């Protein structure tokens, strides 16, 4: 009884406010408290089931509200809570839940607000890096390709385009992600000529990091002629 009261009246209340609070400082404080529970789920199995039970009535509904800040906050909490699975579920239940979670991510890529779309690349890349062995190769490739093909060429927001490049750098921290490098690298020659300086800078940072991490030489990823042309256009 006491445990149920703590979960429903305290922890679930924190979850709600981690998504709906308008006060930025208070929002960060609440999210920091919840982060402790997310970290504990790696050590204590029953935490997984509790978080799923408490998040589900709030999280999915929050992706459909009109306020883009709420949707962004929900996305950030989902990033921490993923994968939302209970150790009591059957294989069929786990597969069904994962499919639902991946579908939510696909929808977020197409979110009407750049405030939300700007966060999506970090969600996807963080998931792939942290759970590369857990997420199927087909799903990783699909989500990354969808993110790159849609958000790298987002016409309405240079911030969204830059975030796609910045988030891609996260993949280079996990050598297991190397099979995905073609998805990123083959788009760079075109993105390097983006009209936004912040996007072009993010591309250069990604190229240099790729060479540093021995994922490939920058002049092999982007032809030297392309680089010379770009340098001639910079001021």
UniProtKB/TrEMBL annotation:
**PANTHER family associated with the record:** CONDENSIN-2 COMPLEX SUBUNIT G2
Q: What is the protein's given name?
A: Condensin complex subunit 1 C-terminal domain-containing protein
Segments crossing the lipid bilayer: none
The source's domain of life comes to Eukaryota
Q: Give the residue range of the signal peptide.
A: none
Q: Which Gene3D superfamilies match?
A: Leucine-rich Repeat Variant
InterPro entries according to UniProt? ARM-like, ARM-type_fold, Condensin2_G2
Q: Which Pfam families match?
A: Condensin2nSMC (PF12422)
GO biological process terms on file: mitotic sister chromatid segregation
Q: Which GO cellular component terms are attached? A: condensin complex; nucleus
